[in-house]
């Protein structure tokens, strides 16, 4: 079966987000006031797996080993079958 | 009212995604086969607005003017009231 995983990699609470701060400031210069801007990364991964549980297990391992840095990031995975 | 907007900035279909290609290749080296990896950016923006319609209008303008590049990006906005 083919699955699509949407993985969101966010900075943990309390981690500085200089890119978000820069965007917030740039928006202010354009006249848009915001209370906060936080950035995150999204990965859309299409993969083959026997079932949705093994797909999730695979994607979790990918996050732990490569995509996320567990010291500074939280990640969330949402999965759906596409075939 | 305070609103939280989740903005996803994705490359348009057909645009090359070198970061996604690199992650796909790195996953292969670690033993994880995938069919595709695409990257995107997520911004979480907290802002004040009179109602949800003006919040959406504001965030759309932020995307058009600063956050997204309409030549290469699609964006989607999901909004919810948080106060």
From TrEMBL, chains A, B:
This is Phosphoribosylformylglycinamidine synthase subunit PurS. GO terms for biological process: 'de novo' IMP biosynthetic process. It comes from Methanolobus chelungpuianus. The gene is purS. Keywords: ATP-binding, Cytoplasm, Ligase, Nucleotide-binding, Purine biosynthesis. Pathway: Purine metabolism; IMP biosynthesis via de novo pathway; 5-amino-1-(5-phospho-D-ribosyl)imidazole from N(2)-formyl-N(1)-(5-phospho-D-ribosyl)glycinamide: step 1/2. It comes from the Archaea. It is an enzyme of class 6 (ligase). Part of the phosphoribosylformylglycinamidine synthase complex involved in the purines biosynthetic pathway. Catalyzes the ATP-dependent conversion of formylglycinamide ribonucleotide (FGAR) and glutamine to yield formylglycinamidine ribonucleotide (FGAM) and glutamate. The FGAM synthase complex is composed of three subunits. PurQ produces an ammonia molecule by converting glutamine to glutamate. PurL transfers the ammonia molecule to FGAR to form FGAM in an ATP-dependent manner. Its main location: cytoplasm. InterPro entries: PurS, PurS-like_sf. It is found in: Cytoplasm.
